[in-house]
Amino acid sequence: QAGSIQQQLFLMNDPVAIDRVRVDRSPKLRAIAALESDRELVDELYLTFLSRLPSAAERTVADGYLAKASSRSAAVEDLAWACINKVEFLFSY
Question: Mean pLDDT of residues grouped by 10 in the chain (93 residues)?
Protein backbone atom coordinates (compact mmCIF):
# COMPACT_ATOMS: atom_id res chain seq x y z
CA GLN A 1 0.00 0.00 0.00
CA ALA A 2 2.81 2.40 -0.79
CA GLY A 3 2.56 5.20 -3.30
CA SER A 4 4.86 4.96 -6.28
CA ILE A 5 7.61 7.38 -7.17
CA GLN A 6 5.67 8.25 -10.33
CA GLN A 7 2.71 9.38 -8.23
CA GLN A 8 4.95 11.52 -6.07
CA LEU A 9 6.65 13.12 -9.06
CA PHE A 10 3.32 13.76 -10.75
CA LEU A 11 1.93 15.55 -7.70
CA MET A 12 5.10 17.56 -7.21
CA ASN A 13 5.01 18.82 -10.81
CA ASP A 14 1.31 18.91 -11.65
CA PRO A 15 0.08 22.51 -12.04
CA VAL A 16 -3.43 21.51 -10.93
CA ALA A 17 -2.12 20.03 -7.68
CA ILE A 18 0.18 22.99 -7.09
CA ASP A 19 -2.68 25.47 -7.61
CA ARG A 20 -4.88 23.56 -5.15
CA VAL A 21 -2.51 24.29 -2.29
CA ARG A 22 -2.40 28.05 -2.89
CA VAL A 23 -4.48 30.01 -0.39
CA ASP A 24 -5.19 32.74 -2.94
CA ARG A 25 -6.55 30.18 -5.44
CA SER A 26 -8.44 27.82 -3.15
CA PRO A 27 -11.62 28.90 -1.36
CA LYS A 28 -11.26 25.93 0.99
CA LEU A 29 -7.70 26.81 2.01
CA ARG A 30 -8.69 30.47 2.32
CA ALA A 31 -11.42 29.44 4.79
CA ILE A 32 -8.99 27.21 6.68
CA ALA A 33 -6.38 29.98 6.90
CA ALA A 34 -9.04 32.30 8.31
CA LEU A 35 -9.67 30.03 11.30
CA GLU A 36 -8.44 31.71 14.46
CA SER A 37 -7.58 28.56 16.38
CA ASP A 38 -4.44 26.71 15.31
CA ARG A 39 -5.99 23.49 16.63
CA GLU A 40 -9.05 23.91 14.40
CA LEU A 41 -6.83 24.83 11.46
CA VAL A 42 -4.70 21.69 11.78
CA ASP A 43 -7.77 19.50 12.32
CA GLU A 44 -9.47 20.94 9.23
CA LEU A 45 -6.37 20.46 7.06
CA TYR A 46 -6.07 16.82 8.06
CA LEU A 47 -9.78 16.18 7.63
CA THR A 48 -9.73 17.86 4.21
CA PHE A 49 -6.72 16.03 2.80
CA LEU A 50 -6.52 12.78 4.76
CA SER A 51 -10.08 12.31 6.08
CA ARG A 52 -8.81 11.87 9.61
CA LEU A 53 -7.62 13.91 12.57
CA PRO A 54 -3.87 14.35 13.09
CA SER A 55 -2.00 12.12 15.50
CA ALA A 56 -0.47 13.71 18.59
CA ALA A 57 2.95 13.74 16.91
CA GLU A 58 1.58 15.30 13.71
CA ARG A 59 -0.28 17.94 15.72
CA THR A 60 2.89 18.83 17.65
CA VAL A 61 4.85 19.33 14.42
CA ALA A 62 2.06 21.34 12.77
CA ASP A 63 1.51 23.51 15.84
CA GLY A 64 5.23 24.24 16.09
CA TYR A 65 5.39 25.12 12.42
CA LEU A 66 2.42 27.49 12.68
CA ALA A 67 3.86 29.14 15.79
CA LYS A 68 7.13 30.07 14.12
CA ALA A 69 5.78 30.89 10.64
CA SER A 70 6.09 34.49 9.51
CA SER A 71 3.06 34.13 7.22
CA ARG A 72 -0.04 32.16 8.20
CA SER A 73 -1.06 31.70 4.55
CA ALA A 74 2.36 30.34 3.61
CA ALA A 75 2.27 27.99 6.60
CA VAL A 76 -1.18 26.69 5.59
CA GLU A 77 0.09 26.10 2.04
CA ASP A 78 3.14 24.24 3.36
CA LEU A 79 1.07 22.08 5.69
CA ALA A 80 -1.40 21.30 2.90
CA TRP A 81 1.53 20.35 0.65
CA ALA A 82 2.87 18.06 3.41
CA CYS A 83 -0.52 16.34 3.68
CA ILE A 84 -0.69 15.85 -0.08
CA ASN A 85 2.75 14.27 -0.11
CA LYS A 86 2.01 11.76 2.65
CA VAL A 87 1.98 8.17 1.43
CA GLU A 88 -1.60 7.67 2.63
CA PHE A 89 -2.78 10.53 0.38
CA LEU A 90 -0.75 9.22 -2.54
CA PHE A 91 -2.27 5.78 -2.12
CA SER A 92 -5.81 7.17 -2.03
CA TYR A 93 -5.22 9.60 -4.89
Answer: 68 70 90 95 95 95 95 94 73 50
